[in-house]
């Protein structure tokens, strides 16, 4: 793979390469050490590239780490992907994200070849590798692929994808980033503490020394602020021609569903019981770098270890956040924005508190128009208000499948939960329309589950 000369964070931010084009090659670079200029350069790159991503010019992801392997059920799904790759002669591979986003066959071939190369190197580094060990390695590659690129809705010859990782450690992680580079991503490893063990001998990436190794803290990823209207609500343009909806509405194929065939359907709850679930919905206040409040919204407890799901447009531009929990007088302050996805309008925060998360719907039965739903959020700052309505439709908005529902929401409801009558999260309130009555949109559970992989 041809490598560009990249010896600074700024050089990586400015470099452009196209995926799947023979005329250009992606880069895979390690920057070793840390210096006094790196922090500002990294924050500037975060702001610059996240702003370009909002404008649709590229896709940018920065990883503070990779999650542990997923549940046994999800592992079986990825093993199925691995088996299909082997059956194709190790030429074509489709990840779970690939099947959901209906990505093209050319990408499947590119991923298949990238997987083959990573697998060959993995095998060459060991005296003996069993079929089980190899399959587990491929499963990790595919799982991490969906974790890092889970919000990438379109991948084609003109795509520019840039991935930055903070201190990749183990060899399997290093080979994963090699796999991404082989698949067409520009990859930068910020090795501020130490180099990846054995990386010098593998010649898979280029290295540049930018300072001494140290334990200086790499700043958390913080996306730049984006444009908003004066109400703080997201403006969503519905396509002019209604026929586009019928052509692009989600089909609820098997690919979208997370079935538990042995489990029995949960009993419906009363509205009073659903309202009691408000204890797992939070109110979020957003602050700028000077500590001034610049916005507010809602959030959903998504993981016991302090993970809170909200909208990207709620978290956008924040330098810190405060979280209020029902029946808890403590105001939890945090600057941990773990990940975000602009296209899906999702973001994940973390606070230092054990939480009681709500279950995300598993898709055992497809959603239907007319189905009763309950929305919980903090409209206009009215903490944990509860409203009910129905699903009134399914829409494709800018390439993202959305649930249209009638339960009333207002500014401040964004990031709140849309529940079915069993108390499962089927969506996260995202947008409403001022020119219509109770025409509201939510990001559906399929995209929520994809975004939260590794945190549920």
Count of helical regions: 12
Order of helices and strands: HEHEHHHHEHEHEHHEEEHEEEEEEEEEEH
Task: Give the biggest sheet.
Answer: 7 strands, antiparallel
Q: How large is the share of residues in beta strands?
A: 15-25%
Weakly predicted, low-confidence segments = 18-23, 97-103, 225-263
How confident is the prediction overall: mean pLDDT? Answer: 80
Rg? 22 Å
Distance between the termini: 37 Å
By helix and strand content, what is the structural category? alpha+beta
Classify the helix fraction into a percent range: 25-40%
Outline, from the CA principal axes? globular
Number-wise, the strands total 18
Sequence of strands across the biggest β-sheet: 10-9-6-7-8-12-11
Brief digest:
The chain has 456 residues and is an alpha+beta fold. The chain has 12 helices and 18 strands.
Describe this structure in words.
By secondary structure, the chain is an alpha+beta fold. Helix content is 27%, strand content 25%. It contains 12 helices and 18 strands. The chain has helices at 9-14, 38-54, 72-87, 96-101, 105-124, 131-149, 171-183, 199-202, 243-248, 271-275, 312-315, 445-451, and strands spanning 28-32, 59-63, 161-166, 186-191, 206-209, 281-287, 293-303, 307-310, 320-325, 328-334, 337-341, 346-350, 372-377, 385-397, 400-405, 417-419, 425-432, 440-444. Strands 10-9-6-7-8-12-11 form a 7-stranded antiparallel β-sheet. β16 and β17 (425-432) form a beta hairpin. The longest helix is centred in the first third of the chain and has 20 residues, at 105-124. The protein is globular, with a radius of gyration of 22 Å.
């Amino acid at each position: 793979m041809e490598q560009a000369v990249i010896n600074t964070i700024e050089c990586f931010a400015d470099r452009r390469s196209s995926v799947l084009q023979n005329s250009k090659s992606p880069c895979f670079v390690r920057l070793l050490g840390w210096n006094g200029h790196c922090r500002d350069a990294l924050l500037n790159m975060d702001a610059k590239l996240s702003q370009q991503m909002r404008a649709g010019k590229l896709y940018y992801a920065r990883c503070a780490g990779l999650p542990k392997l997923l549940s046994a059920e999800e592992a079986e799904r990825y093993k199925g992907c691995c088996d299909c790759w082997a059956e194709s002669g190790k030429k074509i591979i489709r990840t779970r994200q690939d099947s959901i986003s209906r990505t093209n066959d050319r990408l499947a071939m590119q991923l298949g070849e990238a997987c083959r190369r990573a697998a060959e190197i993995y095998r060459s580094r060991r005296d003996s590798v069993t079929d089980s060990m190899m399959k587990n390695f491929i499963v990790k590659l595919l799982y991490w692929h969906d974790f890092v690129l889970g919000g990438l809705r379109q991948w084609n010859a003109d795509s520019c994808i840039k991935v930055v990782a903070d201190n990749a450690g183990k060899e399997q992680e290093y080979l994963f980033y090699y796999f991404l580079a082989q698949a067409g991503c520009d990859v930068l490893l910020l090795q501020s503490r130490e180099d990846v063990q054995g990386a010098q001998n593998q010649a898979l990436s280029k290295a540049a020394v930018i300072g001494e190794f140290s334990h200086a803290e790499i700043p958390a990823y913080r996306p730049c602020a984006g444009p908003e209207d004066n109400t703080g609500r997201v403006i969503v343009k519905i396509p002019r021609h209604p026929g586009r909806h019928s052509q692009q509405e989600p089909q609820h194929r098997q690919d979208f569903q997370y079935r538990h065939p042995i489990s029995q359907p949960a009993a419906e709850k009363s509205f009073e019981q659903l309202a009691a679930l408000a204890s797992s919905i939070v109110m979020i206040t957003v602050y700028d770098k000077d500590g001034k409040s610049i916005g507010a919204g809602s959030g959903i407890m998504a993981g016991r270890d302090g993970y809170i799901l909200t909208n990207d447009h709620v978290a956008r531009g924040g330098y810190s956040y405060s979280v209020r929990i029902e029946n808890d007088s403590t105001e939890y302050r945090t600057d941990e924005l773990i990940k975000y996805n602009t296209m899906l309008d999702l973001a994940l925060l973390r606070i230092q508190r054990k939480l009681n998360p709500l279950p995300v719907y598993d898709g055992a039965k497809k959603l239907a128009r007319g189905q009763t739903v309950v929305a919980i959020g903090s409209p206009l700052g009215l903490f944990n208000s509860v409203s009910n309505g129905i699903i009134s439709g399914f829409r494709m908005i800018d390439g993202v499948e959305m649930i249209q529902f009638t339960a009333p929401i207002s500014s401040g409801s964004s990031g709140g939960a849309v529940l079915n009558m069993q108390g499962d999260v089927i969506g996260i309130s995202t947008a409403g329309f001022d020119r219509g009555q109770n025409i509201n949109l939510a990001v559906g559970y399929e995209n929520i589950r994809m975004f939260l992989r590794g945190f549920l």
